[in-house]
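Input chain follows. Return structure tokens only.
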Amino acid sequence: MKVLLAVINNPGDSKDFIKYTYQMANDLNYIPHLLYIQNPEIYSMSSGAIHPGAQPIGIGVESDKKNALKLIQEKIKKVRKEFPNNIPINFSAEMGARYMVINQFISENNAEMFVLENQSQGGLWTSDSANMDVIQKVKCPGWMIPNGAVYKPYKKIVYPTNYNEADIQSLRRLIALTEKFSPEITALHLTDSADFKEKTTQEGFRDMIEKETNYNKISTEVIHARDNKDTGEQINEFAAEKGADLIALLKENREFIAKIFKPSTTKKVIKRTKLPVLIFHEAV
């Protein structure tokens, strides 16, 4: 089976994230691997120089790693009691820059996707810088899961787009990945225009999707950008109205992604709907 890499932020408070990952991996037919990444910066100074009698750096690193693995194992046991099946859950701990450790794991273990937990207080579109660094630098599909999210099968998916040709390949991958759920997929375009050209572009994109994906549960919708709301906020509102379970994006659509992830409305959007986000990189 294929490997799904899930990055643990806080081993002591990881049960909900492990539960979500376990259920998702089971449905998508993946083996989950939980990875705790130690940040080398917090071990950069000798603790003994500040607190006489404290453990040297090497001992501190090993102690933290041992404790983290113990906590993760405890959480796995609790999750298995709730969802008993035969899928194994592997786990490990490594030290290094987060994106570098993830890239190395993916390369050495043929992992096809990774999962991150978003602990930002501003919703999915204002994720912390460490997660965004991973999204930018790890070249495989990545999932961003809201803190405390409860897993639901992906029956309704919103795919924001500005009619990028690379979207076709991503939609094919999305369909293949979620085929078990036979989801309704809405290709959503935000625009400032309402002219004839915009309408014909939408119709042409819809025709191309139907022809190239051979999937009959994809629809296209256009909504108009509003000056008083940023792009991410409008996407979340649309997804909520649709009852969506997932938002999927193509990272290579750089101009569009830049609009979505701008932090200018962080305080306004704390109460927005929080949905999992799947971010594709353009296939090579």
